[in-house]
Amino acid sequence: MRVFIPGVDGYLGWSLALYLAARGHEVAGADAGFRRRWVEEMGSDSATPILPIEERLLVFKETFDGELRFWDGDLCDWDLVEEIFTEFRPEAVVHLGECPSAPYSMIDREHTTFVQRNNVMNTLNIIFAMRDFAPDAQLVKLGTMGEYGTPNIDIPEGFFEVEYRGRKDRLPFPRQAGSWYHWSKVHGSNNIMFACKLYGLRATDVMQGVVFGTRIDEMGDDERLLTRLDFDEAFGTAINRFSCQAVIGDPLTPFGKGHQRRGFLPLRDSMQCLTLAVDNPPEASEYRVFNQFEETYDVTELARKVQKVSGDLGMDVEVINVENPRLELEEHYYTPDHQNLLDLGYQPTHDVEAEMKVMLEDLLRYKDRIEAHKDALLPQMRWDGRHEKVHYLK
Amino acid sequence: MRVFIPGVDGYLGWSLALYLAARGHEVAGADAGFRRRWVEEMGSDSATPILPIEERLLVFKETFDGELRFWDGDLCDWDLVEEIFTEFRPEAVVHLGECPSAPYSMIDREHTTFVQRNNVMNTLNIIFAMRDFAPDAQLVKLGTMGEYGTPNIDIPEGFFEVEYRGRKDRLPFPRQAGSWYHWSKVHGSNNIMFACKLYGLRATDVMQGVVFGTRIDEMGDDERLLTRLDFDEAFGTAINRFSCQAVIGDPLTPFGKGHQRRGFLPLRDSMQCLTLAVDNPPEASEYRVFNQFEETYDVTELARKVQKVSGDLGMDVEVINVENPRLELEEHYYTPDHQNLLDLGYQPTHDVEAEMKVMLEDLLRYKDRIEAHKDALLPQMRWDGRHEKVHYLK
Fold first, then answer.
1. Which structural domains are found in chain B, ordered by start?
2. What is the ipTM of this complex?
3. Are the Cβ atoms of B153 and A176 closer than 8 angstroms?
């Protein structure tokens, strides 16, 4: 199948290109290099060494004996989107080309408006390109479990049957996002739901949990195939950041009380799930939602697991909570459904500690790279608008 | 109170400036003249003759013995927004500065992206200006009843208590908008709801029904004070368009089966309600939603009323349904709450036919202006993307 990946130079994008190519799909991608610049702006760098995109493309060709067609540019630029769709004629689009960071969107007005404009506009361009040039293709759109927030009731997959004042309807489940970034994803989900109804497009909206891990099997022993792994406050996520902290001997730092519960999944599970979506497209006009995660975990529970696995590897690290830079519940009900992908055949890895061990061993090789940007680890972007490093709570 | 009105040159904006000034408020406004250009783009013009904004400002000064401070510009321009907020220091902002047209947003990709970008971005600018320069001010934001769509259950005012799998929560009511424009309003509502929680802002989100009518008492006999009245397919709304059709002897044209039910309210009721919101601000951090309409009506029922009142005035007009350019249910359940404004003292006009009579008498004076642009009356922008005049169904 011809699969087009906006954001192919990113954490998930690069991994997915390898994963799909290894399974015989014809992959194309686009990227403006935003992610590299954003992480640099945060004073950080990928823990894993990654090649410039031009060299990545050469290694891809050498590895898979087939080309990864690539467009260097911004999908907010309609002319570029039109060129890609008319030349490549994708049968599936896996849209990983949005700015994925809550803290980045909270820095200041300029960053908020950039993230919302970028994410809403490039998704609209993709919608219109599909309508005009690939009406039978499917869109797999990366959303986030964060769109739902933490309601006090179960979270279904996108829609729920509701009874209200004696009448019933099936309605979109209310979204209560917790950052400007997360709301940009809600705006995108709403636009795509409408596009399916309006233009007969077919879309899978992936409410993904927090991804962790340095690798998938397709990277093998070739360091040049590694994907990026960020640990700065904006682009690093919980387990990845804990692991980088462990490797340099810094305390692992859950936010606030540390009992936020979220869905998590290893990078390899994310690839498996996105590919299941691609391989099992929805019907025309169908808009379906997958809650994509392996299991829910309490953040402190995960920090303890990283601590334990680090200990097994001879590292002695503490867990010390820090002030919470975010505005969020730190103890709450959280019971999201996640049946749709299991029904399609998703086989969860389920061994979080084994996955952590692989990551920690990888990261130990790049300890110096993390040391070099260790200042980026502790957050300073606070949801109330202040820029001030969080303090340890002890 | 110092009230700032983005979109002060528009149908509601100009009326509200007069209404508030007559009640002793200090009014300022901004406008980029977009609405005048959009209507021209649709090949039409206001049925009522309206003065250029510079002359409107002189008449305002002469009438109210006080100045309407005015900024000519686009609120997507942050520097302008910052200048306005620091110089005027508003105590209330009534945001009427968005593109208000569903059909306009459906013309093509360029119009869709323009409407969503314009509406989302200028609202974000206003949010940040309030946070930084007017944190105690209140925002009254014009949304639309169209954000809710037509669910098969009652529509509460913004939030509902829901029981799901044995647990309860109070959640935002799901939105199911029916055009790219309506979704832009949902995006804005979501952003404002979050801003109240995040920055402690206070906001009233007005889910307004369809407004009709040519005047409010404050315009008196001074033609120079009249507000605009559009009848083209994009900026004219149901009763206003039926009335313009009646005046030139054209058939009144409900869409499809014509049993769409919507909330409607006269222009004078809209002014009364917006002013009630301004005069009764919410608490800090409070985000409240008002469903703002007088009563719900079936569209064909309204066409029949316009036909009857036209008959009383000696005009003989038919009602003939046309193809529906939209994708919408033409017969459906529709029971929205509208108690919040009544609780604040809203006294509905309730005499729709009397209001229609006033409007028809006004419009008869401007029959030639409507005749001159009568081609703009029948829609050609279809929700499926085609541009083709709708046909009569008979």
1. 2-376 (3.40.50.720)
2. 0.98
3. no
